[in-house]
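agent> fetching stored inputs for the zinc ion docking request
agent> found them:
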Amino acid sequence: MGFSSALVLFAHPDDAEFGCGGTVARWTAEGCTVHYVCVTDGSAGSNDPGTTREAMREVRARELAAAANVLGVSSVTILGELDGFLEVTPETRRKVTREVRRLRPEVIVAPDPSRLWSGTGYINHSDHKAAGALALSAVMPDAPTRVLFQELEDEGLEPYEVPNLFLISDDGDTFVDITDTFDLKIKALQAHASQVPEAFEARVAERARALGERAGCTYAEGFRAFRFQDD
Ligand SMILES: [Zn+2]
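agent> prediction call returned; pasting tokens
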């Protein structure tokens, strides 16, 4: 793929590693500058009685920084929306558009907002769908259209056309071979100590192996790839 820069947009601090951690590790190793933008504060990440949002917020920011460091990510921005209640509003669209116009990435990687569930054992989190929808609306029309969020011009942020979009998907059309970076994906996921259950590795490996089978390699991550400009 050979992107020079990427913005990975996601709802919760551990989403990027689960969805595309191996790809991020591979791209950074190849010289791509990868930026993380985490839309919520991750403060709903514990169901333990007595755990507060305030305490969780700090834990998760620390874990995200550690995971990003494992993968060679250049910057981490947390937009701080309340975990569990992410919505597509003019305010959240402005916040995401600000980051897109500031970072001007060659590709945005984001969750697929059309994913409602997987199989019969997983309902997709509402925040994931909202983060994906925010990525789509940033690509078209928010980031490239001057009169939308014209106030961002006062911050020196010019409109920007995003050339490529990768939506994380298990039934997409594009695969990244993560055989060489699978260990780094696992190591980055381990940084999210408050989140990953016992023996999570087997489940992650199973998914990467299933995608690898379709891609013709040992481990892969899958995407639906959009290209908006001719080379
Ligand atoms: Zn999540």
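agent> quick read of the result: The mean pLDDT is 96.
agent> awaiting further instructions
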